[in-house]
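Sequence of Peptide deformylase (Pseudorhizobium tarimense).
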Amino acid sequence: MTIKPLIILPDPLLRQVSKPVEQVDSEIARLADDMLETMYDAPGIGLAAIQIGVPRRMLVIDVSKEDEGKKPLVFINPEIIASSDERSVYEEGCLSIPDYYAEVERPATVTVNFVDREGKEQTIEADGLLATCLQHEIDHLNGVLFIDHISRLKREMVIKKFTKAARSRTA
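Predicted 3D structure, token representation.
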């Protein structure tokens, strides 16, 4: 397993729509392991493949508490097929937008179809933190960031801050 470098805002790759995974094979399994290793190292609770520069529709999540032990989930070609009218608000952050957090309102529950790391089709109904995390990471696969769900003024301030920081790193 290898810890991969994270893609950070304002990298345009984060706005790219990811392509479906054609086949679950050893390369995809290795990618899942690398993504989990990178996510745990960051540390985070979710990571989309695009965040490590791989534009494939794949994400990993682990919302288990530290005292429960690790319970990693791998989602390949995930698709939200249903969401509740009921809403919930969570303070979200993102490994690609380090040290910035904002409250985001999303559907409280979602139903997601996906392929697991063994190549089997699955459906999961999620609520709470898992539902929020799934929506956040699936957004990444569609080139959407959590800051797209906050006010335009706040979003522009965040983008400006990260653009300035990126310029100073390359100067």
